[in-house]
Design goal:
Chain lengths: 139, 354
């Protein structure tokens, strides 16, 4: 699946509280006019996020979805991650370690790092005793 | 050169769903999921049986025989496992009849001048090249019997030629030990033994993470989201990639499908429900406003993978067998007498409505 639409990367302010969200939201809404917008929010500078910030994210997502686009989050700081997890908003978004990978993900699906649980199952099945070898004769 | 494949389902070691218990031993969750072995259950749009047959068909195998316990025959037909290939379906009655049934099939194949016959004890999903096994046998003095192994042991696949010693194969097939007269072909590709319910979920994750060559069915409508024919996803539903929505499945408004979840065909995810890190198997209804996480659901059976728990949910308002909204509407208009009258005609449709 490849798409050539432009991706808009927006840097979020360091304090995503009520006053900042009120300023930031109109900026986002202003650019959400095109059909199927592709947006990445860069969280790399976000040090504080409160309920107003979370609400702002949800409003943006609602607007993007109504336009049949997608909104992805990138470079989340630990503070932002904790709040998003606490409010269970994290599962609404695709999240990426860097802005580049987030932008790239719009171009086509790229498998990301293995989640911990899946990794456990996988390694449990493969002890890696080194016996494997294609076309090797035994028995 | 003609090549055939015999696929054995059910006894003696069916790939039924199991949950791992604390002592590491598998404990049965009720023997199966709705009477269907894991290898017949559609995962990401195709069952392990279909995927295995496809692998062999791609390698030039032109005749398939499915051997299944008599109780599974109906299931196999319902599961539509024969999409266009030449497939014979034979049955056996109980464990004792398995190997005689296999021998009969082998003899029929050899009598029809088929040179190579693969015997596949279904359960594991193994990504190996059948042609490589044939080549291996040829390179080793035209070996009459070859077994396929990976690092953990047998993957339940053998190759036989007409001159093969079937007694040795029978011994190994019935897990009564190994026979050194069989040559072993080792491969280091992807194998999922599907011996536990967690393995089914792991298979979905592995496909999404491209750890194996299997692929979801349907169209990739946007990066990492596969939607199959006839599926309806409400505009207000949110699907976070990677995800799979099966044929004729309906995803209602305000619902959320996230964290590598898959929803198979003919399902209905109702308003505001969250499906997170879960698999919803074919023909399942998930009620309104639920939060389904780390689970596999089939009909009214919920298997929670983190809690290692199987639950049968009797309230079909919550979770149950799917009934299309049209049928629900029609049936609700009937009084109980009318329902009783038609109950025998459409038993599956009525389930969950009364």
């Amino acid at each position: 699946m490849k798409t050539g639409r432009p991706v808009l990367v927006m840097q979020l302010p360091s304090r995503l509280n009520l006053s900042e969200a009120r300023e930031f939201l109109p900026e986002v809404m202003a650019v959400l006019r095109s059909d199927r917008p592709h947006i990445v929010f860069d969280f790399s500078e976000v040090q504080q996020i409160d309920s107003a910030g979370v609400e702002m994210l949800l409003k943006c997502l609602e607007r993007v979805m109504s336009l049949d686009g997608d909104l992805k989050l990138a470079a989340l700081t630990p503070q932002a991650s904790v709040i998003l997890e606490l409010t269970r908003v994290d599962r609404l978004f695709e999240m990426f370690a860097t802005v580049d990978t987030a932008v790239e993900s719009f171009r086509g699906f790229t498998p990301r790092e293995v989640p911990e649980a899946a990794s456990t199952w996988y390694t449990a099945q493969l002890p890696g005793n080194g016996r494997a070898g294609r076309d090797r004769l035994a028995g | 050169m003609k090549t055939a494949a015999i696929l054995v389902l059910g006894s003696p070691a069916p790939a039924y769903s199991f949950l791992a218990s604390d002592n590491g031993q598998a404990s049965g969750c009720s023997g199966d999921i709705a009477g269907i072995p894991l290898s017949c259950i559609e995962i990401l749009g195709a069952s392990i049986l279909q995927r295995t047959m496809q692998r062999f068909a791609d390698a030039g195998v032109n005749l398939f025989t499915i051997l299944a316990d008599a109780s599974l025959l109906k299931v196999i037909k319902l599961a539509n496992v024969m999409p266009g290939w030449l497939v014979k379906i034979n049955s056996f009655q109980g464990d004792a009849d398995v190997w005689p049934a296999i021998e009969r099939s082998l003899q029929i194949d050899f009598a029809n001048e088929i040179n190579n016959v693969f015997l596949i004890k279904l359960g594991a999903y193994a990504e190996f090249d059948p042609n490589a096994v044939l080549q291996f046998a040829q390179n080793n003095n035209d070996q009459a019997a070859v077994r396929v192994y990976d690092t953990l042991g047998s993957v339940g696949i053998w190759l036989f030629k007409q001159s093969a010693n079937l007694e040795a194969a029978a011994k190994e097939f019935q897990n009564h030990g190994q026979d050194s007269s069989l040559k072993t072909y080792f491969f280091d590709g992807y194998v999922n033994r599907l011996s536990r319910m967690q393995d089914l979920r792991r298979f979905v994750m592995d496909v999404f993470q491209s750890r194996c060559s299997a692929y979801p069915q349907g169209n990739e409508v946007r990066a990492g989201v596969w939607i199959d024919d006839g599926a309806q996803v409400h505009k207000q539903a949110r699907i976070v990639p990677p995800a799979y929505i099966g044929k004729n499945t309906r995803v209602g408004p305000a619902s959320l499908i996230t964290r590598s979840s898959s929803i198979e065909r003919d399902c209905n995810v109702d308003y505001g429900t969250v499906i997170e890190d879960s698999c919803v198997l074919a023909g399942t209804y998930i009620g309104t406003g639920l939060d389904l996480t780390h689970s596999v659901v089939c009909g009214n059976m919920l298997i929670h993978l983190n809690q290692n728990l199987v639950m049968e949910i009797k309230d079909e308002i919550l979770i149950g067998t799917n009934v299309t909204s049209r049928l629900r509407g029609v049936f609700r208009r009937h009084d109980k007498k009318a329902v009783a009258k038609h109950k025998d005609e459409h038993p599956t449709h009525w389930k969950g409505i009364l």
